[in-house]
Design brief:
Pfam families: RecG_dom3_C
Number of strands: 0
Order of helices and strands: HH
Number of helices: 2
Helix content: 40-55%
Distance between the termini: 18 Å
Protein name: ATP-dependent DNA helicase RecG domain-containing protein
Radius of gyration: 14 Å
Structural class: mainly alpha
Strand content: under 5%
């Protein structure tokens, strides 16, 4: 279906972790929690992103 961290996206994406419809409430809670961490401790949030993504921290830049 394409590259998760790349720019090429094709076909239907099969999410194995969450279903965007079924898990909408949980995803909203996760988003709100992430926003809280960013607001309360931006350096900790940056460290977590760096830990999860390593050198791919700029994955959102296309």
């Amino acid at each position: 279906p394409g590259e998760v961290l790349g720019t090429r996206q094709t076909g239907e994406m099969q999410l194995r972790i969450a279903d965007l419809i079924r898990d909408q409430e949980m995803l909203d809670d996760v988003r709100d929690g992430a926003a809280m961490v960013i607001e309360q401790d931006p350096s900790a949030a940056s460290a977590l992103v760096k830990r999860w993504l390593g050198d791919r921290v700029d994955y959102g830049r296309v």
